[in-house]
Amino acid sequence: MEGKTEEEVQRYAEVFKERYTELNDYDRIIKNIEKGESKISRKDEIMKAIAKKMDRYKNPWLELKIQYGQNKGKLYNEECDRFLLCMVHKLGYGNWEELKSAFRMSPLFRFDWFVKSRTTQELARRCDTLIRLVEKENQECDERDRQARKDKKNMTPTKRPSSSSPAMDSPMQTPSKRGRRDGSAPSGKRRRR
């Protein structure tokens, strides 16, 4: 909080927790606090999801792939979406003015008037769409990892075939079944020596 030290805020929070019921609209105030806390936790979840996506790539600014599914959209291209996610990762979720400025200053979008003319609300909406796609992809990736670990854990060593199978273990096969030494099938003609 601006103008207050951390100790002052901490003392106020302690007194507030003890005496908030003395306030007239304490129900409304508590709901606003809970709403604010849920927004903060959601923002943290979003930043963790984006960071998890970025960690899968050596250079996400160039290599990042987004699994659009069926809702790719026609207005934004993959390069724009990649830049948007990387900048949100760098600037933080909710810094829409800085994001808009980054698009305008980037040489990648020097002649892309569509992107440069987007409002902060439009960029925020596109970012929310991309975040939902990233969260879905992260969830699918986690599920695949869990399944792979489960399969690896349940995998038992394979047994060698038993010697009761005569076709597999018989070293003496007839020449017609064995074929030639070079691996080609017999032609039926005898070779001359």
Automatic annotation (TrEMBL):
Pfam families of this UniProt entry? SLIDE
List each coiled-coil range: none
- Compositional bias (Basic and acidic residues): 139-148
Give GO BP annotations, semicolon-separated.
nucleosome organization
Q: Where is this region: Disordered?
A: 139-193
Listed GO CC annotations:
chromatin; nucleus
* InterPro entries for this protein: Homeodomain-like_sf, SLIDE
Q: Which Gene3D superfamilies match?
A: Homeodomain-like
Tell me the ranges covered by the SLIDE domain, including all copies.
27-137
Q: Which UniProt keywords apply?
A: Nucleus
Q: Which SUPFAM superfamilies match?
A: Homeodomain-like
Compositionally biased region (Low complexity) = 161-172
Q: Name one GO molecular function term.
A: histone binding
What protein does this entry describe?
A: SLIDE domain-containing protein
**What is the native source organism of this protein?**
Aegilops tauschii subsp. strangulata
